Amino acid sequence: MVVRIDVTASDDPAAGQILDSAPLIGVDRLVGCTVTRVHHVRGELSDADLVRLCAEVLVDPVVDVHTIDAPARAGGRVVEVAPRPGVTDGEARELERAAFELGFAAIEVSTARRYELHGDLSDDDVARLTRRLLANDTIEHACEGEMDPEFAGAIAADVRVDLVELDGLSDDALAQMSRERVLSLDVNEMRAIQAHFVAEGRWPTDAELETLAQTWSEHCVHKTFRAKIELTHTEADGTVTVSIHDGLLPALREVTEELDPWWLRSAFVDDAGIIAFDDTFDLAFKVETHNHPSALEPFGGANTGVGGVVRDVIGVSARPIACTDVLCFGPPDLPDSELPAGVLHPRRIREGVVNGVGDYGNKLGLPTVNGAVLYDKGYTANPLVYCGALGLLPHGMHPTEAHIGDRIISIGGRVGRDGIHGATFSSAGMDASTVDSGGSAVQIGDPITEKGLIEVIELARDAKLYTAITDCGAGGFSSSVGEMGEDLGVEVDLSTVPLKYPGLQPWEIWLSEAQERIVIAVPPANTADLQSLCDAWDVELTDLGTFTGSQRLIVRHGDTSVVDIPMSFLHNGLPRREMTGAWADPAPKQVVTPELAASMILKLLAHPDVASKEDIVRRFDHEVRGGTVVRPFVGPEADGPADAAVLKPLGTDGTLAAVLSNGINPRIGRHDPWAMALHAMDEAVRNLVAVGGDPDRVAVLDNFCWGDPTKPDRLGSLVRAVQGCTDGARRYRMPFISGKDSLFNEFDGEAIPPTLLISALGLVPDLGRAIDSAGMQPGDDIWLVGQGRADLGGSLASDVFGLGASTVPVPLVDPLPRYRAIHAAIAAGLITAAHDSSDGGVAVALAEMALAARLGILVVVPADGLDPFTSLVNEGPGRLVLTGSPENGDAIAAVLGDFGRRIGEVTGGDRIVIGTSSGTSDDTNSLDSSDLVLVELSMNQAVEAFTGRAAG
User: How much is the average pLDDT of 588-602?
Assistant: First the structure.
């Protein structure tokens, strides 16, 4: 018996989003939309069972109405959308689980969404709405009218292991095979595989070829970052230098080893970097990217991006305690006519990504506490989705060495076709055909399963049940088991692996990146105890095989041989690339700055990169677990921007707190990628120090998102950015503890802006001294740290006002003394509020502080020899605005020394008055100056520009 249950909410926000988005895709006649959740249930259920299932699981009586086997009569056009066969139907699986918990007989569920569209719509309108807004063809199929249910069962297939003929294939044939199989290997790499199997006197199996492609993928082994690179650098004056770089990744590791702070626990060797928190606990931090999947299926890509980085933290035996996200999108108002073929509209990508991030973190019970959102036309076809996770673990409780005889245990989610070829797919560029060919690379998340995984691993860790652990991400079992067994050898039997549905071939089981799985090495004596933990948390456990000591990767499916490769070839047989890069510094341009006006400050405040992200961030729970001290929004109206997140990990004693911040500025990267790295590091440190973080206890992570590194200009800019990172680590005395590169972010040969995210993890010694940007009081003095710079290259003002500046501000050479001084003043309780100066310069920083506190200010910013416009909007590094009581003025001056200048006061009114000099001398910040230039904003103007809503 199959029963259809329709559930319709009285006010579904998804319907409102469709109505808002329809005009953007050229559909102007849609006047109403109703969204209904459809559940097809197959099983032996009585009428009473159905009533109970609806009442206790499916229907909220306050906002929902439902029907059983009676779809509402359509008053408009009806489109129904459902997951494609083989794609995880998470809602269906949860309903099946809930029915089991209620004591019902086993049921099968298939779900869909029903859209009732109202208006004078043409067939083309309905097709356009379906294609662009209602369904993602990569993972869903749609029809007009009612859709027949498709349940999870698939036709079982005989186990088949195919052999792949490589003997005698030419370079062209090898290259074609790599493309057709989505191996993302170059000709030299295909030759190496060909030669290996010729020497063995046999053809490789399909699984062996796929295993090598995954292990050797850019995504997994970072071939570009390990390559030998010749860089030709042409400076602006024509000077040309040629340098040889013996690996970018070794250069980053080298500087960390050189700094070697006592509090560093692990860097670049685990799934996440680890530092000491206190004498008892350590902190683990990792940031990943999920760009290519998010371009195809924004919700699923971002959703599993969060799930994947949380697994990275679990993979170092830590309990996840917080998440971060940094998102880069194309312009939300991009005309549909300018959208490349095969690309989702940036607004739809944004909605899907934001919902995906919130869905996973919220369901896991993790606060999303820090991040950023940027917009640039260069991200239209290639959005960037940076997902971060912070974890806490007892010191010394992360085992890393499997032993011969240990069992290879997988715990967590089942295996399906979703996620196959994710590692190799993300190691190549995209074009219009990617929508059709990349569908299987999209992974589908199941946060409920991962929640159980978190609990099991924490209990197993504390009971010391395992000897090594890693997450099962890109490449699935191939990656996790292959890496864990590198030094020993393994033997695996895939016939016992739980599948989402029958019909998967051995290579698919082995390579699938289906989510929510961890692989651990478990001594045989501990497997029963581990099974008991898994049973208690309803988490599946599978014994895959054993660590053998044979130095070979041996995989079977029952009696059928699937893979038999020496570990030495798998991990050391990859030919090292030799690559060529080139970078030319842009020629300086003469910049004519406009006359300063208050409207310019308002325009900068309203720019999407600066304006409030509240409509996005409020979808993420940043309070859950109760440890958040400094939140994303601050001030009496809780709508002012915070610089960083401060949180007190639950279960830790004392006043010590953790702080998370980030720095990112792709506008600078277009002009000078070396300077971009240093500016991003400076921004991360400014943000961290502004909330009370100690600049002498900071670790940083790098995430490079770049174009095709086989193109010399892309590679040249990447090398320059890495040089900036290593120079920055030495200048700031801050080690890199982890990182990730996402390359080949191109669509039809057009690359994204070179984008480097620096994430910082530090400590606030006394959470009682943590401050934010809104803590100032009427009568407080306002102080400015740092001087202005004449160079506007890479600034928001240059972009917004079309100045065309190309020379970026010179990075700081010796930054730590100023940050130590600021930290000392905050730690002494002298500072009431602090805010960094970044996008839009000190004028925007001052306006943001005033609107956050809802207090007027009167300041005169020292011109530092600059014209008024440049004085207020330049983005010179090392600049912060501080406030403090006049009673502490002498003490603040003594602590800041030459780094700080008093520039004004908090008036407490509703006027934001910002002045500077129109002269060219290094004048004082006096209101009596004869060449003073003032801009004045009302509080209402600033609030409306920043938040997009009228102040009230």
Answer: 94
Does residue 516 fall inside a structural domain? no
Q: Report the amino acid identity of residue 265.
A: R
- The vertex-317 CA angle with 316 and 319, nearest 5°, equals 110
Q: What is the pLDDT of residue 11?
A: 83
CA distance 777 to 781: 9
Residue 433 belongs to some domain of the structure: no
Of residues 66, 196, 219, 345, which has the active-site annotation?
Answer: 219
- Residue 436: the pLDDT is 46
Task: Kindly state the greatest CA–CA separation across the chain.
Answer: 91
Q: Are residues 100 and 6 in the same domain?
A: yes
Give the sign of the dihedral formed by CA 915, CA 919, CA 920, CA 925: negative
**DSSP helix/strand/coil, 309:** helix
Count of structural domains, the chain? 4
- How many whole angstroms separate alpha carbon 843 and alpha carbon 868? 11
The domain boundary, picked from 770, 789, 804, lies at: 770
Q: Is 941 helix (H, G, I), strand (E, B) or coil?
A: helix
Range of the domain at 213: 171-217
Is 290 assigned a catalytic role? Answer: yes
Q: Say yes or no: 682 and 802 in one domain.
A: no
Helix (H, G, I), strand (E, B) or coil at 724: helix
Pairing of strands 552-557, 517-522: unpaired
Name the residue with tokens 């910002």: 914
Question: Which domain CATH number covers 119?
Answer: 3.30.1280.10
Catalytic residue among 290, 292, 345, 835: 290
Q: Please state whether beta strands 517-522 and 140-144 pair in parallel, antiparallel, or not at all (unpaired).
A: unpaired
Return the pLDDT at 443. Answer: 62
Taking 50 as the threshold, does the pLDDT of residue 899 lie above it? yes
Whether pLDDT at 138 is above 80? no
The answer, as to whether pTM is greater than 0.85, is: yes
Where is average pLDDT lowest: 276-285, 335-344, 850-859?
A: 335-344
- One domain, residues 671 and 735: yes
Instruction: State both tokens at 315.
Output: 């993979």
**Whether 66 is catalytic:** no
Number of residues written out for the chain: 952
In this structure, the answer to whether residues 762 and 795 fall within a common structural domain is no
